[in-house]
Specification:
With 119 residues, this protein is an alpha/beta fold. It contains two helices and eight strands. Strands 1-4-3-2 form a four-stranded mixed sheet, covered by helices on one side. A four-stranded mixed sheet has the order 5-8-7-6, covered by helices on one side. The longest helix is centred in the N-terminal third of the chain and has 11 residues.
């Protein structure tokens, strides 16, 4: 049975420099874009779209976006190799977490659960 509201399709992050953000998401992180313009761009993820929306109110904020990974150490090392500032993974109650920032200081989380769906 599907939800009354369907599924989450977009997550929007407000940005100041679309050009910087697109270089970051495409060149450093390797994502593909579905659409690009100076005011609105869409980054393709497996099951939703990260929409970058140009805005003058772009104080850095925690986006609440969490990327779930199988091996956080590998991901952190690869991000650092690409020049992304990322924290050391830390153990939290349900897994390991690290944090990185986009070029404007917005915060994103990387999470590796202690258990997998198979266990």
């Amino acid at each position: 049975m599907s939800s009354l509201l369907g599924k989450v399709g977009y997550v929007i992050v407000y940005v100041d420099s679309m050009e910087k953000q697109l270089r970051f998401w495409k060149d450093k992180l390797g994502f593909k874009t579905l659409y690009e313009s100076p005011e609105w761009s869409e980054i393709e993820f497996d099951n939703l779209v990260l929409a970058l929306h140009q805005s003058s109110d772009t104080e850095p904020r925690d986006t609440g976006i969490v990327f779930i990974v199988d091996d956080i150490s590998v991901v952190v090392n690869e991000l650092r190799r690409k020049g992304v500032k990322v924290t050391e993974p830390r153990d939290i109650e349900v897994g390991m977490e690290a944090v990185f920032n986009d070029p404007e200081g917005n915060i994103y989380h990387i999470f590796q659960p202690h258990h997998t769906e198979d266990s």
